[in-house]
């Protein structure tokens, strides 16, 4: 067998391994329901429930932040995040959580938010101006 | 109904739009002309060539015209234009106006087009016999870039996105029914505070010069296949490929420096899709450079060289599709949104992919692919292996980064790995082991045939040597606590540095022309060493729990309790340091938090003291945006950023210096009254207060003291956490009424009043108002130690020098025909 063929086979094997590993390590998008029944890490897309309480008090614990989120099919759970409340959190609506369920609360290891500068509709500012204009 | 709008400056926009259309038209004209110039069989007929050149010159002028108009609009604060309104504001200094110029997609497309225009002109001047086919390809790319800016409606769908769209065209709002709407648009949105960093002035131009120059080797490869000059294209393309790799690499590192200086994620590399997008074509082209050199020297690896060169540019376009089309959706924080150009970007990728694939297939049988096998102990074989591994590492990045693309294509809903950083680190480390070892081993091999015994002796000798050094480094820095593969990378990198160091030493003795690759390899090795130690053993100093916990992976953010709260002026022990939040300084719009670091020796003496000023900026669009501050040492960096600060601190900072006499007792705990004599000391929660003396001649500003009025001040010395403050509350009898004037020490969270004089005991009643902790100014911060990060930066500089030397060398070898 030619050396280059052997090397070609190795290359293809590594390529296949990459694809399998990617698929194997890939997480899944799910809902809180899935998280209830699943012990692994999940991605959950949802909206922050701004009506419910949001706890972050640095004077008590600088590394505890909790809030409520409603997932895409309407389940709502308390979310606990070990860390500070992200800076843009109040301006965000839709977020993606990565984490797992633990004793009825979802423990997030990451909170992914959209950078508000690029994702909010830029109509708001001018509307505020309009109001001022009409007064 | 048309409205006669007032105050709009429409000329620069119309002119700019005219230049866009002209740029598109002239580039298309140039492409067609160059195409016919290439295919024309009549060698004496140069008319097509001249038309192609005229088209290209016209395109270059138009591109400059577009830039000038857009710059004028932003610089003159013409907020009737959406681009200026969206990305700039009146307060922005000139150098950041430059950054705001390319903050948007349109500006960055322009930048790309500008560099491509420059490169095209260089090629018209230098490429000689290659000009016609090469410029055909480049003009085609220039046409597609210009089409991205067109912003015109064709068959009901908008083609491209023009930077000259007016605010009222870009948005729907009732205000635009008023002719004088512009008088209400006072200011623009301003530049994203995170981009207000000097790296953002030079990082995008460098990066886009890198992207733009990737087309040159691609164009040469296409020209070679098209014109059946299979063997000739490689040599001139090597220099351009080296240039592209050097510039793109520099641009990528500049981006990570920017991230390190202005972002809060606590590091310089996060495997974000935007970062990967720039790295992907870099990896394939660096592989291509190596196999091109192999082909030039031995005639082997022709197909790999051609394929990697072609795929690199297709990947540049694919990367730009990834970051600009909005397909990354939830997986990237930084990617651009969809400007409605999804299919336009797809078409761009597909056109160039088809050109490359078609030529490869049509010409495949004629390609000079060597029938002979490379010798196992030959440099060319192992350089080839190394290049394939670079391509595989690129494949891994592409496959994982493209998960949203797979989802869109196959209608699946796979989420990205929940811990992508670990996945990328481990995989890429695996490839890095092979690549770094090969950059060493190949130095002992010669092209064609090598003396096997000598090869093994020197390889093994250096490997043993490298293993010893690695062992020491790994032990001292704590890298041994990481996964085994990272130790292997360290071995590979050290090995590469040693062997190439030897080559460099030889180069100084005579074989000076070999210096370029040796220097570049050493630089790459140092980058690996620096990245491994600094990212692998970075430790959060502000950890609330004691003891170091080097995780098995690099991604430690938010896994543990990494944030520390500091009350103003209350020192806290953090690792080896004693840190104190000592105050604020405001230079609008930035709010700097002064954090004092003290390093004490065993006897409590200060060994070292410095102040870091991480800052936060309040931005209308984005809320609070924070940037870190870093203390740089030669062998490590101490990085500090604000995770959170209560807004009242920000506001308190804003009215610093205003004495407010309003009743704010609610902000304090119930007061405690103390009867004191001069010289008495009282304790309070955070320290003690001494009544030093009585000032019988106290003054309260603006209040004149006349006749029977009495004003008495108590000179109080307050010592809180080792810091001394002075305060003088005043007791006053004026026109028979009693007043008292409280004094506040905000930094100590105290308010003091002199409320009563008890003459019979010669005592005074001092009321002490103590602020409850929650109301006192505080910050929450995170501090990270990055050891040996300077290896990373210095490695980069060394690698760039290596590339430069190589470019000079290859240019000397080059006799362009």
Features:
heterodimer, A: alpha/beta, OB fold (Dihydrolipoamide Acetyltransferase, E2P), 5-stranded mixed β-barrel, 4 helices, disordered C terminus, B: 817 residues, alpha+beta, 4 domains, 6-stranded antiparallel β-sheet, 21 helices
What does this structure look like?
By secondary structure, chain A is α/β, with parallel strands linked by helices. Chain A has a domain at 27-118: OB fold (Dihydrolipoamide Acetyltransferase, E2P) (Beta Barrel), CATH 2.40.50. Chain A has four helices and six strands. Chain A has helices at residues 3-25, 32-36, 116-119, 124-134; strands at residues 27-30, 42-48, 65-71, 76-81, 94-102, 105-113. Chain A is elongated. The termini of chain A are far apart. Residues 116-135 of chain A have low confidence and may be disordered. With 817 residues, chain B is an alpha+beta fold. Chain B folds into four domains: 1-191, no CATH class; 206-211 and 221-416, no CATH class; 564-643 and 778-787, no CATH class; 668-770, no CATH class. Chain B is built from 21 helices and 24 strands. In chain B, the strands form five sheets. In chain B, strands 6, 7, 8, 9, 10 and 11 form a six-stranded antiparallel sheet that branches. In chain B, strands 15, 16, 17, 18, 19 and 20 form a six-stranded antiparallel sheet that branches. In chain B, strands 4, 5, 12, 13 and 24 form a five-stranded antiparallel sheet that branches. The longest helix of chain B is centred in the N-terminal third of the chain and has 29 residues, at 11-39. Chain B is flat. Residues 545-558 and 651-661 of chain B have low confidence and may be disordered. The chains are: A alpha/beta (135), B alpha+beta (817). The interface between A and B is large, with 58 and 64 residues.
